[in-house]
Automatic annotation (TrEMBL):
This is UDP-glucose 4-epimerase. Residues 7-330 form the NAD(P)-binding domain. Homodimer. Its EC number is 5.1.3.2. Belongs to the NAD(P)-dependent epimerase/dehydratase family. It comes from Flammeovirga pectinis.
Length: 344
């Protein structure tokens, strides 16, 4: 049986690289396309070191329509696209909205045009729980209303989902699944790939690990007077490997033709909310290290608490998160040490 070939956009990024590894472990032939704007070419070497297989790699910015056309012309055996490539810094999107709209929307449109042209029928789209805003009910189900976006970044995810929904309706040969994920953290057990933000981290866990290593003086906890177990904000944290595996299950759902509609969407989380202080405490306990932090004012735009209802992902998609908070924190620290000590 010939290997099924899958295109992974943003495949040298954080979630993309873990997904490529899992795809290769399942026997898929993977083509990575990435413009390396927020990642490094040597990630391809690390993927090969983990899986024993070197994926195809093309350096390309997906807003280049002719470049995308040439990509599809070169790889004629593609059966699906897993689309991660997007700008994703919320703060930057507020400062540079046009940059975000151009990159995140045009890249998707170019891909869909070529999928239609070259008969590549299946897309798994990287979406986000930001589409729900501050939900009225918890946990968040897929039936929760999509709220007005808090940022241009969040709005691009909403608009991309609308583009997908309209496109598969107009062209029934195309099918798409959007995965709305909550908060990915952790790293591969080999400590060869993980989250490596450029500049000051925007996310909690890299800030914890950098503070523990001494790169940051202390961590700021934004608010301790929320209506939560300890006053700090609550999120649903999910291990990046669990998340990666969900993309493969979604792709196989499309490839095997068991999707119930041409456009589906699923929440991906653990179904459990953890507060900022609980995450810090878990890190300290698992790794035996103190983390310096101070409580500061709430951050504008932050929601109080959100976590997923994973029933539909568990029962319909057939996926379930397996790794808990302790494993997330231990793998994140192993990765941070490997990066800083030059072991990867």
């Amino acid at each position: 049986m010939s290997q099924k070939q899958i295109l992974v956009t943003g495949g040298t990024g954080y979630i993309g690289s873990h997904t490529v590894v899992e795809l290769q472990n399942q026997g898929y032939d993977v083509v990575i396309v990435d413009d390396l704007s927020n990642s490094d070419r040597e990630v391809v070497d690390r993927i090969e070191k983990i899986s024993g297989i070197r994926p195809h790699f093309e350096e390309l910015n997906l807003i280049d329509a002719e470049g995308v056309n040439q990509l599809f012309k070169k790889y004629t055996k593609l059966t699906a696209v897993i689309h991660f490539a997007a700008f994703k810094a919320v703060g930057e999107s507020v400062q540079a909205p046009l940059k975000y709209y151009q990159n995140n929307l045009v890249s998707l449109i170019n891909l869909l045009n070529c999928m239609k042209e070259y008969d590549v029928p299946n897309m798994v789209f990287s979406s986000s729980c930001t589409v729900y805003g501050q939900p009225e009910e918890l946990p968040v189900t897929e039936n929760a209303p999509v709220q007005p976006a808090e940022s241009p970044y969040g709005n691009t995810k909403q608009i991309c989902e609308e583009i997908l929904r309209d496109t598969v309706k107009a062209y029934p040969q195309l099918k798409a699944i959007a995965l709305r994920y909550f908060n990915p953290v952790g790293a591969h057990k080999t400590a060869l790939i993980g989250e490596l933000p450029k500049g000051v981290p925007q996310n909690l866990v890299p800030f914890i690990t950098q503070t523990a290593f001494g790169l940051r003086d202390q961590l700021s906890v934004f608010g301790n007077n929320y209506d939560t177990v300890d006053g700090s904000a609550v999120r649903d944290y999910i291990h990046v490997v669990d998340l990666a595996k969900a993309h493969i299950i979604a792709a196989e759902r499309l490839l095997d033709g068991i999707n119930e509609e041409n456009y589906e969407y699923f929440n991906l989380g653990t179904g459990t909310g953890s507060s900022v202080l609980e995450v810090i405490n878990a890190f300290e306990k698992v790794n035996g290290l103190p983390v310096k932090y101070k409580v500061v004012d709430r951050r504008e735009g932050d929601i109080e608490k959100i976590w997923a209802d994973t029933t539909i992902a568990n029962e319909v998609l057939g996926w379930k998160a397996e790794r808990g908070l302790d494993e997330m924190m231990s793998s994140a620290w192993a990765w941070e040490k490997a990066v800083r000590e030059g072991d990867c």
